[in-house]
Amino acid sequence: MRSRDRILFVGTLLPLLALCLQSGTVTAATLKGDGTQEGGAGSGGDTLSHSLTLVQRLEALLAQGNGSDVALRVETPSADEVKVIQAHSLVLSLQSSVFEELLFSRNGSTVVLKESSDCAAVFDKFIRYLYCGEISLRLDQATPLHKLATKYRVLGLQQGITQYMTQNLARDSPSGHVVGWYEYAQQSGDTTLRDSCLQYLAWNLSSVLQSGEWATTSSHLLMSLLQRSDLILQSEMELFAALEAWIIQNEPDGLTAENALRAVRYAMMPPRELFRLQTQSPILARYQESVRDLLYMSYQFHSASPLHMAKYFDVNCSLFMPRNYLSPVWGSSWIINNPTRDDRSTSFQTQLGPSGHDASKRVTWNALFSPRWLPLSMRPMYTETGAMQPTRVDGGRPRIIITPATSSADFAGVNFQKTVLVMAQQQGKVVVKHVYNFHQSTEENGDFLAEADLYRRTSEYLSDSSLYLHIVVKPLYQTLITSKN
């Protein structure tokens, strides 16, 4: 603060404190106990705190306008709404460097502020926060309050609302809010909020596709989602149906529609579904020339042996790479009751690979869950008598091992990536909390359920004392030989 400003506002502080003391609830003993006289910090004296009472008096000052030395005139661009708030220069300047500059350069007792309609509607809440340090808000008020905190550089409020929005992504709202929050975060440069929204949308895409906010998705967000391999949804057909609905409703330009359709992984659809799309989809009929090469490669992928296909095509490209599909063909859900009790195991089957050549082949998988597995690096190998220590000891961490029940020559050229989806309760809704990728054991991650308190019955990771998981097996074909022909 400039020295001139400091002189100006210190003169305002005395009547403000006097107004607070007039109530008789903030006493001289309170000031003494806070260390302004004897027994201050570091002297070993006791501390009396009446800060809540002081906050209440400051709130009363704002509500009653006592001692006000500045009027904030809040106008919308159309000037059809005007709101006047009687305030105090000292409080505003201490909380906001932007207000400090505005008040220093003002010519009179009134400061005119131009705000959008949504920001003007919550401006009184924003000013109250500057006096009281707390705020109550609804989902629909988060964005305008974040705008105000950003504009006036109130860092604590800005960070607090970002945290509020991040923690309430799963909350139900009439028209949805995550897409809108993402678009705002992208525009405002809030990377923390943007990344949180994008991850939530990717990991809970099936529910998003069925909501009203899917139609409001921008083309930029749409492409960001379509290019990801970690999307969690029922199948690629579900994604195509949602994309088709989005194109019909939003009528984007031809280039946008073509780019979006080319991001669909047609090879992950069975041939019968591809035939149906080509004959029944109005969008695919309109843009078939733009995706003809992808459809042709997808038919080849389903008709040829993967080993033969890998000699001539790069089967590691996104077209041949599965996403995290929830269909039983790709994995199985696993509900573990009382997950801290002891080891559990389960078995399930998946299709060998997405290629039609492997459609009839099945792989049986054995999964073992251990709630207290100690990594080798932390495990004592021998006792004093030279005997081996048991592999499970107290103090270990959860671990899942997934291995095939049998080996087969069909596995040649196929790399199986396992993905464990960990569900959690948020705002009364089950959402995907974490995604772990590994080849055989979650020990490869090093942080599997590291933050989950499975011993606490109220843990967000537990529902009715059970841990809800979903295992996805993603077969990835490997390119073997590049043909020169």
Per-chain topology:
Layout: H1 3-21, H2 28-36, H3 51-64, E1 70-75, E2 82-87, H4 89-95, H5 97-104, E3 110-114, H6 117-121, H7 123-132, H8 142-151, H9 155-167, H10 178-188, H11 191-203, H12 205-209, H13 219-226, E4 232-233, H14 236-250, H15 254-262, H16 271-280, H17 282-286, H18 288-303, H19 306-309, E5 324-325, E6 331-337, E7 344-351, E8 362-373, E9 397-404, E10 414-426, E11 429-438, E12 462-463, E13 466-477
Parallel strand pairs: 1-3, 4-5
Antiparallel strand pairs: 1-2, 6-13, 7-8, 8-9, 10-11, 10-13, 12-13
Helix pairs in contact: 4-5, 8-9, 9-11, 10-11
Describe the structure.
- This protein is an alpha+beta fold.
- Helices cover 39% and strands 19% of the residues.
- It contains 19 helices and 13 strands.
- The strands form 4 sheets. Strands 6, 10, 11, 12 and 13 form a 5-stranded antiparallel sheet that branches.
- Helix 4 (89-95) crosses helix 5 (97-104), helix 8 (142-151) runs antiparallel to helix 9 and helix 9 packs parallel to helix 11 (191-203).
- The termini are far apart.
- Mean pLDDT is 84; it is low at 1-41, 386-393 and 481-485.
